[in-house]
Amino acid sequence: MKLKDQIAAITGAGRGIGRAIALKLAQEGANIVVSDIDLELAEKTVTEIYEIGSKAVAHKVDVCNYDEMNQLGEKALTAFDRPLEIMINNAGITQAKNIFDITPDEWDLMLNIHLRGSFFGMQMAGKIMKKTGKGSIVNMASVYGREGHPLTAHYSASKAGIIDLTKSFAKALAPSEIRVNSVAPSVVETDLWDLGDAQMSKLKGLKKGQAKEERLKQIPLGRSAKPEDIANTVSFLVSKDAEFITGECVHVTGGALMV
């Protein structure tokens, strides 16, 4: 119970990595604002959290919307009568496409959800945490934000931006003892990765699943990550065990990226 009674908000917490993070933080004692653009999915995660024994509230949020993101802090205070202490900017999408075929709308959507959404989340949480003098923020990056990829240029660029934004906010908020870090997974067993694999396999002229198999061959530990692997890392970063870590990007890749 390293996070007992702490208040956390997580975007994109209705499924996949976000859901796993919500459940892990709840297991550690945190109370959660479960936000997602799909309210029904968020409510399912809330039900699971109550079964664990923690408290939670569902909240529909479009991370690209400044006003809706700022309501997350208000939602936490109203629901739990305590200010936000943990913010996880996790909401995301994926798309594999030839660099010459990415449309302006696809570029804008990718960067808006990842960069704009994370920026709004950090702004909102940072303002609240500065008043209380404590807090931790974690942003979801990607190994592609480090390496780049010929079929995910807009996705990779948005994730690289998140890594850099994390450093900027970490430096700005460090005097207030607020820590800001990012996590960069590789292959994760989620619906989002299945979609990316299907798109990438098609672009490469492969059968569905073969692009993922190619990627797995590059992972020394020989398997893809489970959502819980990412959630465990996030749980560590927001706990006191990581109280001297800020501005870092932690690579959860099974050894696919070693720096």
UniProtKB/TrEMBL annotation:
Coiled coil: none annotated. It holds the Pfam family adh_short_C2. It comes from the Bacteria. GO terms for molecular function: oxidoreductase activity, acting on the CH-OH group of donors, NAD or NADP as acceptor. The keyword Electron transport does not apply. InterPro entries: NAD(P)-bd_dom_sf, Sc_DH/Rdtase_CS, SDR_fam. Keywords: Oxidoreductase. The keyword Oxidoreductase applies. Belongs to the short-chain dehydrogenases/reductases (SDR) family. This is SDR family oxidoreductase.
